[in-house]
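Box S1 | Example of a co-folding query
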Amino acid sequence: MTEQQEANPFTLHDTRIPRFIYGTAWKEQATSELTMQALNNGFTAIDTANQRKHYFEQGVGEALQNFYRSSGRRREDLFLQTKFTYAEGQDNRLPYNPAADTKTQVEQSLLSSLEHLHTEYLDAYLLHGPSRSQGLSDRDFAVWETMEGFHRSGQIKLLGVSNVNHQQLELLSHRAAIKPMLVQNRCFARTGWDANIRQLCHRHGILYQGFSLLTANTQLLAKPEFQAIMARSGLTGPQVIFQAALKMGMIILTGTSDPAHMQQDLNCLHTPLRDDEVNLIEQLMT
Ligand SMILES: NC(=O)c1ccc[n+]([C@@H]2O[C@H](COP(=O)([O-])OP(=O)(O)OC[C@H]3O[C@@H](n4cnc5c(N)ncnc54)[C@H](OP(=O)(O)O)[C@@H]3O)[C@@H](O)[C@H]2O)c1
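Box S1 (continued) | Returned holo structure for NAP
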């Protein structure tokens, strides 16, 4: 494991969660090669989904096999996370029988993920998104209860939910027998970087993973106050955003395809911004 990824990992339920997670969406046939590059560059956490429309989970598994062989590292050295996605979010390449009941769909999806990733357990498993935009449905609770079963059997270490709003997270945290441990959300500067959800996560001991930190916040880079921070720190815009997000307590997803950016992103762990600068960035677009 590289020195970068050793810096300030979180630990939850005896599971070590690195501060940077390499995201494998939208890489298609390059998934295996790019995942291998990310691992060789020092990433020790991988995010994927059993959703062939946007991810190629089998390609991730191929990279893992190659990495173990070439590096001597083992499964336990890595943090592997994948997701259950409803049929509405899939194309026709479903990892389960769409006619089966919800519980069976989750079981089939998860078992196929374990097979794709050549592992007996997942460090984290996420519901990719609730079935509706407001509130939670019986189907969402059926998915969650099935995930809880896999957590109890030790096949999933951490349970999480993605693309969730404040009300949904409150509801799930209140009703679930095993509470969510991770949230993965798109993170817009204009919402104070998902401030409400992050506060709720903080209250419930949930760790927050942010995605689209760069692509959703391009207007921020043009702000004079932001440019002044870049000039003072000597960091690039993406580095300032990632560094600020780290200081806000987030886990960061990056899906960069550029080996130089892989290194640059991981190096954010060593280039601290001042607290007043982070506070300014946190408020700048709200
Ligand atoms: N749960 C969900 O519904 C959901 C949705 C979207 C994404 N995700 C997860 O989050 C991961 C990340 O997705 P994302 O939406 O954040 O976008 P992304 O795929 O990480 O794209 C980020 C963009 O930022 C650029 N970039 C990264 N580091 C950079 C650097 N140091 N300097 C300059 N440019 C840099 C990349 O370009 P280069 O390639 O040129 O570096 C890329 O164009 C996905 O792969 C997926 O695992 C989850």
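The pocket of NAP is lined by residues 23-25, 47, 128, 162-163, 184, 211-215, 236, 238, 253-258, 261, 264-265 (CB under 6 Å). The two ends are 38 Å apart (CA to CA).
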